[in-house]
Amino acid sequence: MKRLDNPPNPYVTAHHEWLEPPPPVKVEVFEEQARSIIAENDSPDVGYRFSVNPYRGCQHGCIYCYARPTHEYLGFGAGSDFETRIVVKTNAAELLDHEFRAKSWKGELVAFSGVTDCYQPLEAVYGLTRACLEVCLRFRNPASVVTKSYLVVRDAAILSDLARETASRVMFSIPFRDPQDARLLEPGAPTPQRRFEAMRRLTDAGVPTGIMVAPIIPGLNDRDIPELLARAADCGASAAGCIALRLPGSVEDVFLSRLRKVMPLRYERIEHRIREIRGGALNDGRFGERMHGRGTYWDSIMQLFSVAARRHGLTDSMETREECTFRVPPEPVTPGAQLELPFG
User: Fold this and answer.
1) How do residues 116-131 score in pLDDT, each as one tens digit?
2) What is the pLDDT of residues 247-270, one digit of tens each?
3) Hey, where are the domains in the chain?
4) Of the candidates 38, 40, 39, 42, the residue with the CA atom closest to the CA atom of residue 287
């Protein structure tokens, strides 16, 4: 990784149109020539096998983000480092093109934003997610995106073309109804209103959309579920999903310390409810258990979610085409390269 002394500032040219005002923190950017871009997932809890992450770390700074410990693999911290020391995989699109051309690749869906938001502010200047989606379109390889960012609207045309040629979908992570709660727990992310606006604009452009109420933090945002699903349906969403709060590894300390600071009067109630759905613990990392809770309180949350989803016609999954549309396009021509002449 190479640290940039003068990293590009997306807020100089993009924040009036796409981004929220810049946060009051200094961001360090590290450029990396990655060795691979498609990560394979073997967890039975996750609904996809392959993911693409053009960035490491995330400027949205959500205090509950389960991916924070991945920054520790780089020698960074899971706290403030995760949102202020961002790694950019500058060769992401070239790698994706190369890996799609492998004989072993069969055109399976790739998920963007497995461990970081692929439309975080730096995407406004690097355009790596856009370039990767263009690769998916050339190969007719299905793709899904999970994001909190309004910046995804910039790529509405590409996502619409991808949905028409093969399959694409965008799930918006909107866990809070109250913009003040969102600002306290997701300090660098756009407001809920902006996310719903982006959802409507993508839907109008022909992109299948949905809402992820994730994470559900018991005692805090479970009461927001009916209104969130109603607003998503009004914006044209066709799907809805939810995931219980996860606090793996060092995320527990980051989440609890920041929650106590920003919500001191609600802290004890929220912690009590988290333990209530986790059998007295704060986290359960076992496969089959980590994405949801247990007990009477959690069952009541799921009942509330199911009733609201049925009322507004939101399914628990996004339909995609069953037939394989994947095709390998011709290799790009290198300027100055000798072309082969067709004989015979």
Assistant:
1) 999 999 999 999 999 9
2) 999 999 999 999 999 999 999 999
3) 8-311
4) 42
Write out the two tokens for 274: 């988290």
CB-count exposure of residue 26 (10 Å: 0-12, 13-18, 19+): exposed
| The 3-state secondary structure of 312-338, one letter per residue | CCCECCCCCCCCCCCCCCCCCCCCCCC
What band does 340 get if pLDDT is binned at 50, 70 and 90? low
190-244 pLDDT, tens digit each:
999 999 999 999 999 999 999 999 999 999 999 999 999 999 999 999 999 999 9
Q: What pLDDT, in 10s, does the model give residues 3-12? A: 998 898 898 8
Q: Given CA atoms 261, 263, 264, 267 in this order, what sign does their dihedral have? A: negative
The residues that bridge with 51 in the sheet, in sequence order, are 39, 111
Report the distance separating Cα 277 and Cα 244, nearest Å. Answer: 9
Cα 218 from Cα 256, distance rounded (Å): 14
Strands 85-89 and 2-3: unpaired
The answer regarding whether domain 8-311 maps to CATH 3.10.350.10 reads no
Give CA–CA dist 219/9, Å, rounded: 38
Question: Letter for the amino acid at 43?
Answer: S
| Tokens 């011709």 sit on residue | 330
Answer yes or no: are the C-beta atoms of 121 and 147 closer than 8 Å.
no
Predicted confidence at residue 343, as pLDDT, reads: 46
**Average pLDDT value for residue range 170-197:** 97
Which residues make Cβ contacts (< 8 Å) with residue 210, sequence separation at least 6? 169, 170, 171, 172, 232, 237, 238, 239, 240, 241, 314, 318
